[in-house]
Predict the 3D structure of the following.
Amino acid sequence: MISGIMISIGYELLDKVTLKKLIIIPRVDAIVMVAVMGLTAFYDLLFSVSLGLIISAIYFMKKMADQVEDDSNESKLEFMIYELIDTFEDAENFKNKVFIKTIKGPLFFGFSTRFLKTIHAISPKVEVVVFNMSLVPYMDYSGIRTFKDAILYLNSKNIKICLCELNKKNYSLLRELDIIPNQVQEKFIFDSIESCVMWLDEPGNIDGSMQGDSKVYFPSAFTPNDDGIRDVWDIINIEKYENCHIQIMAPDSSIVFESHGYKQPWDGIFNNNWLPKGVYKYVCQLDPNDPEKINGTVNLIR
């Protein structure tokens, strides 16, 4: 009597739609479903359900780990970052020296050694590896260990490491485990990948050499998006030339910015309106008594 009732209830609860599509659903899902059904019918209900949950959980974690690795290998930088790098004076050389890796998803014990294989396969020309951590919501200890192994390997090759957009929790974990600052110095932690690549493009920051104390460096681009990151065109060491004269012209040669002393950096605004993105020309005379002028272009990226 009880068996008949259970068979009747089981038949009513059976997902008939899924059974009809058993051939086309993912193979692992089909195997788990058939195994649970078989064990339920011929062995024990609680055992079969528990086993199904365990197999599904393990399979899910493996898929998550594979997804992290696949996304990390295949994902590309946001269009603005590509556009930003292409504005650098020697963009191709920068791309050869700087390897940028975006990691998507949590770092947990399923974070496979394939990640390490990817790191080991980095070109010997690379001098800096930038990890974009903006899409890593969570790290557990085993995931951090794999990540630390990658960092130690890069350190052994004298490759600098930059970490970008760490959330507070992940930053605290890396500090508690002494990865910061022992393996990655504080000066190589950045709030945004945009800020990181622009800093790396400045003279001497990749190879560690120091530029002259009075040498002026004109960044090739800035991003006035009102996000607090590179919102103004900061010219390095320009403050040493208090009487400098700077003009910035739009593509039609009209002057959109002019300054004596450059006390207030250009913010990409003209007549209280945001200027469109594009390439702007600049002319700088560092000393009014010296007729020599510095000409160049700066990319305004939004």
